[in-house]
Write a structure and sequence with these properties.
By secondary structure, this protein is α+β, with helices and mostly antiparallel strands. Helices cover 32% and strands 25% of the residues.
């Protein structure tokens, strides 16, 4: 083996080569991030479950101090990262987004296959265990992203139907008042929307254009020979069997 002298010039050349050949792959691998800041920069990948704490208020005098505390002193036994997000586009809704640790809620590893419509098989106990772990990560008054909502829905559907094999037929989300489930007529409108849908919309579309109310995630599942509609808003899951 020929020894290469570690001069400053050699180190500079090696650093440049690493940047040229490695960085584009890192950027490419992250460019499909689900959660973006107000300027469109990706924060978390599609294989991450993210939860949101929307308790911030720009109008308070302690906004910056509160934000700094949430970003700095978050629970590292639950979350891997924390970022400030603003759902913007007129919503003007500041929040803190937390990436849930994958080993705590391993559904993130199969979320991509699930949203491609592939049949996923887990025991009801496994879904319950992961859903319970996720619920413990959602801040009071907060909500989760499409991946987290899918897990919460899967747990309820598998329990309701008693079937371990479930596949996704359709998915979308809404952020309007139409999806308040304590009002039957509005809940019916939300379920009518997903019942008529026959496509799985891309997850990266979620929150595009900002939020004006808590998001409601809508799913159409096939479990055995039964189709079930699910609507997830914050920690609440509502089901309708077709």
């Amino acid at each position: 083996m020929i020894a290469v002298p570690r001069t400053p010039v050699i180190r500079m050349v090696l650093g440049a080569l690493i940047y040229i050949f490695l960085v584009p792959w890192v950027v490419f691998g992250n460019r499909l991030g689900m959660i973006k800041d107000r300027y469109g920069s990706a924060l978390f990948s599609e294989n991450t479950i993210t939860v949101f704490d929307p308790s911030l208020d720009y109008d308070t005098e302690v906004f910056e101090d509160t934000l700094g505390l949430k970003l700095r002193d978050f629970d590292r036994e639950l979350y891997a990262e924390a970022y400030e997000v603003d759902f913007g586009a007129g919503a003007d809704w500041p929040s803190v987004a937390y990436a849930v640790l994958e080993n705590l809620v391993p559904f993130s590893a199969i979320a991509g296959a699930f949203f491609l419509g592939e049949r996923i098989e887990k025991s009801v106990h496994a879904w319950t265990r992961m859903a319970s772990a996720l619920l413990s990560c959602i801040p009071d008054g907060g909500f989760t992203d499409a991946n987290g909502a899918a897990l919460l829905a899967l747990e309820k559907v598998s329990e309701h139907v008693g079937c371990s094999e479930v596949s996704l037929l359709a998915y979308t989300w809404v952020d309007t008042e139409v999806a308040f489930f304590d009002e039957p007529d509005k809940a019916k409108a939300a379920f009518n929307l997903i019942e008529k849908l026959d496509e799985i919309e891309p997850r990266e579309k979620q929150f595009k254009g900002g939020l004006h109310a808590y998001p409601t995630f809508l799913f159409k599942f096939e479990a055995g020979d039964v189709q079930v509609l699910a609507a997830v808003k914050q920690k609440t899951v509502s089901l309708v069997e077709l």
